Amino acid sequence: xxxxxxxxxxxxxxxxxxxxxxxxxxxxxxxxxxxxxxxxxxxxxxxxxxxxxxxxxxxxxxxxxxxxxxxxxxxxxxxxxxxxxxxxxxxxxxxxxxxxxxxxxxxxxxxxxxxxxxxxxxxxxxxxxxxxxxxxxxxxxxxxxxxxxxxxxxxxxxxxxxxxxxxxxxxxxxxxxxxxxxxxxxxxxxxxxxxxxxxxxxxxxxxxxxxxxxxxxxxxxxxxxxxxxxxxxxxxxxxxxxxxxxxxxxxxxxxxxxxxxxxxxxxxxxxxxxxxxxxxxxxxxxxxxxxxxxxxxxxxxxxxxxxxxxxxxxxxxxxxxxxxxxxxxxxxxxxxxxxxxxxxxxxxxxxxx
Length: 353
Prior knowledge:
InterPro entries: Cycloisomerase_2, Filamin/ABP280_repeat-like, Haem_d1_sf, Lactonase_7-beta_prop, WD40/YVTN_repeat-like_dom_sf. Residues 123-151 are annotated as: Disordered. By secondary structure, this protein is an all-beta fold. It is 0% helix and 52% strand. The chain is built from no helices and 28 strands.
């Protein structure tokens, strides 16, 4: 018996910071038996909803609006595959590209790429995001004059231990960190630098292992960094780094994620247009390259692991691809199915029923 799984697709629109051809957040069906992707439809009109997340209770979907004057928007699920906007709020920064729905369920935290700031938004009783109660700014730069002229907050995550949040800053080659008390009116505490990565590495996204190790994708130097985070000091140190792919030529890693059992690490490589698979060992301290699998399109910006498939959003080819993951070795195989979707850049599986 096959089962369909709904996917929400973040997208670029004609008015977003990076122009695209979508009209907002989209929805797609994945057949988890065959890997077929079907019926791309507009779920909700929106401007530049390039990153989408669930609320902690699963009742809402939130999106950044990646615009010069950045915003965050909240949607309730209306019917089988439609989203209804509940409200939006300005971030106070530019080009927000990543969003955290904090596990406590009271706040959204947005990474504003353009000016490097991080905005903290309370969530109202109706689920809508409110104006930010805090905005954390930063200074600094890196050696890449074109991409690192100033701070560029690219993503934000809960740190191991749960008491802090980590901000991955592409512009300054740093992991920024601050304590976060969701019960407080102003939940973010003083910010500090938890780790400095190699100059010019351009850290973009990270994945967190249950052992406390972090895996950071270096967008500008095409490497994966392994760090050990100490919750007591809220500092991290680099313990290893490896190339993000064995393919040659220019390459810019994007999304990075662990398998559910934490034995495999996956990296989306834009340029090589592959998904790289790494073996994770030594209680998370070491990674070893196993394979590069074609992403099924061009410029794989994001992916999600969904019921035995790795579903890839290939931005420049305007395709979603479903790559079956071998249950024995954890390596994705060639794309089993492709679907044309306007400028897909984020894949969010709907909550399973």
